[in-house]
TrEMBL record:
Gene3D superfamilies in the record: NAD(P)-binding Rossmann-like Domain
Domain of life: Bacteria
Annotated function: NADP-dependent dehydrogenase with broad substrate specificity acting on 3-hydroxy acids. Catalyzes the NADP-dependent oxidation of L-allo-threonine to L-2-amino-3-keto-butyrate, which is spontaneously decarboxylated into aminoacetone. Also acts on D-threonine, L-serine, D-serine, D-3-hydroxyisobutyrate, L-3-hydroxyisobutyrate, D-glycerate and L-glycerate. Able to catalyze the reduction of the malonic semialdehyde to 3-hydroxypropionic acid.
Catalytic activity: 3-hydroxypropanoate + NADP(+) = 3-oxopropanoate + NADPH + H(+); L-allo-threonine + NADP(+) = aminoacetone + CO2 + NADPH
Organism: Anseongella ginsenosidimutans
Protein name according to UniProt: NADP-dependent 3-hydroxy acid dehydrogenase YdfG
PANTHER family named among the record's database cross-references: NADP-DEPENDENT 3-HYDROXY ACID DEHYDROGENASE YDFG, VERY-LONG-CHAIN 3-OXOOACYL-COA REDUCTASE
GO-annotated molecular function: 3-hydroxypropionate dehydrogenase (NADP+) activity
Matches recorded under Pfam families: adh_short
CDD domains the record matches: SDR_c
Alphabetical UniProt keywords: Oxidoreductase
Length: 262
């Protein structure tokens, strides 16, 4: 009798880091459940990965801003008897905006996608994850979660929440065989987000940002090794370590200079 196939569930899988994670998982012969906005690109991605790697892939086109989105994903997996042993909470939104001029709908969307979705999916799936001898939750955060970033105040705060949640769940769920990891990249270089002052943008962007493919490889290597924190690249690691070595007032002043208006 064949063993029941296990699946890796990835949210926000149709572009950027999510798409690269889907490709890297398929390359490692992981069956996939891909969730993203309804779009032909999602089906094309799944079809291409099936042909290239021969893995099982199912897709669910869904607007993650819908109030019941996490439960609908969970029920989809239950109804189809998908055995999820890896949950990748990748969905999220960023962007630069002054807090004063941000709109409430914009902030609401960010809080839903960056905080609520990962929290609710982790809660819903933990019972199914612990059925496996070893299972994983990968939360995609950001190096911004270790800083207080002006003009990205809410975004960096949501990523700080995700860091705190990951650390707590790692301790709480480890006895159940569920390993929880935070991925905190400096940024993916496919984004068009001019958040750094023009005088330092070129050098800093090149060293803080990495390709989605590199981030995905590094993330999966670290997750499967059971690491608690994955920070791709040298400079983001240095920044995070230095942020802990200096007084908060000094760190905040440096971050304020880097992220000041262009």
């Amino acid at each position: 009798m064949n063993a029941e196939p296990s699946f890796t569930l990835i949210t926000g899988a149709s572009m950027g880091i999510g798409k690269a994670l889907a490709e890297e998982c398929a390359r490692r012969q992981m069956n996939l459940l891909l969730v993203a906005l309804p779009d032909p690109e999602l089906d094309r991605l799944a079809s291409g990965l099936r042909k290239k790697y021969g893995v099982r892939i199912h897709v669910f086109g869904l607007d993650m801003l819908a109030a019941d989105a996490p439960r609908r994903i969970y029920e989809w997996c239950v109804e189809n008897n998908f055995a999820v042993d890896k949950l990748v909470n990748n969905i999220g939104i960023g962007g630069r905006s002054d807090f004063e001029t941000s709109t409430l709908p914009e902030l609401d969307s960010m809080l839903i996608l960056n905080i609520k979705t990962a929290t609710f999916l982790s809660k819903l799936f933990v019972e199914r994850l612990k059925r496996h001898p070893r299972s994983y939750i990968l939360n995609v955060g950001s190096a911004a979660g270790f800083f207080h970033v002006p003009h990205k105040a809410v975004y960096s705060a949501t990523k700080a929440y995700l860091y705190s949640l990951t650390r707590a769940l790692r301790s709480e769920l480890k006895p159940l065989g569920v390993h929880v990891t935070l991925l905190a990249p400096g940024g993916a270089n496919n984004k068009h987000d001019p958040v750094v002052h023009r005088k330092v943008n070129g050098w800093l962007h090149r060293n803080l940002h990495h390709s989605p493919e590199y981030i995905a490889r590094t993330a999966l290597d670290g997750m499967l090794k059971g690491r608690n924190l994955i920070v791709p690249g040298f400079l983001p690691k240095v920044y995070i370590r230095l942020s802990k070595a200096f007084p908060a007032s000094v760190v905040d002043a440096v971050v304020r200079v880097i992220f000041r208006n262009r």
